[in-house]
Amino acid sequence: MSTPSATTPSVAGLRSPGPGLITLDPVHTALLRGLDTLLTGLAARLSAPEVTGPPLLAADGLARLDYFRNFPHLGVSAGRFAPDAHDSLAAGQAPGGRPLEPTGYLLPSATCYGLLLSLEGTDVGEEGLRISAAGRCFRNETHYDGLRRLWGFHMREVVYLGTKEGAVEHLERGGEFIQETAGLLGLDLTRATADDPFYDKGGSRARLMALDPVKHEYSAPDGTAIASVNRHRNFFGERLDIRAGSHGPAYSACVAFGLERWVHAMLRAHGGPERALDRLRAATD
C-alpha cells in the first residue's frame, strides 16, 4: 500500500458530482482498499471463500423477502429509455424528462440479497455454508452526509447459512473480529441494538425486535454505524427453500461492513487521510 508520490497530479480530496455521490482521491482510495483488505480477515478466519454477487436484483424476488414491506423507501430501480426515445437521444436531445421503462430489477441495497437469492432451492448440507463478497450498494435516503450517508457505497459481508447454533457462533466470532480490528486501527466503537424491522413476520415486529433483537450495530463516537451483525433466523431458509441437510430450513446470519463509513471513522479518529493511512499500515505490517 503506497501514498501517491509528489509527481502525482493534484486531485481534490472528496469531490461530489451530485447529492450522495463522492469521488475518492488516490489517498482516500488507498485507505478504502486497504481497509477492505484488512476486513477480509474475517472471511479468512471463518474459511468463507470470496464470491461475486449479481449487479441487479429481481423486484419479484425481493418482494418475496418482504424487502418492500420493510424498506419501502430504500429501493433504487433500474430503468431504461423507451425505444421511441432512442432517435431523439441519438440526435443529441437532452435525456431529462424522457420516460424510463421499468426493467423489473433494482440495484442492490445490501450485498447479501443477491447471494441469498442465488442459493434458492439449494441444500447447504449438514456443515452449512459460508461465503464472502463485496459490492456496490445503493439506497434512496432522506438526506446525504459526506462519507457517512451515500447514495452509492461499498459493502463487504460475510454470510453464513446452516444451523441455528452455527448462526449464533458466526455472529459471535464476527463481533469479536470487529472489536479486535477496531482496536488495531485505534477506533473506539460502541455496540447497540438496531431498530430495523429486520425479517420479522406479523404485525408485532417492533415488539419482537425489542424482546429478541436480531441486529446489532457498531458505531464510531460520532454515531456513525460502520459495521453490523445480523441474525435472520430461518426467514431466508423458509422463503427461498434453502435447506441445511437434516436440520430443515437453513438459519442465516451476516456480518456487514460499510467501507466508506470505515474511512470516515478513520479520518475522524486520526485527523486526516495521511495519518489514517499510516495507522492502517501500522496495523497491517
From TrEMBL:
Highest taxon listed in the record's lineage: Bacteria
Keywords assigned: Ligase
Gene3D superfamilies membership: Bira Bifunctional Protein, Domain 2 (3.30.930.10)
Cited InterPro entries: aa-tRNA-synth_II/BPL/LPL
Molecular-function annotations in GO: ligase activity
Protein name listed in UniProt: Amino acid--[acyl-carrier-protein] ligase 1
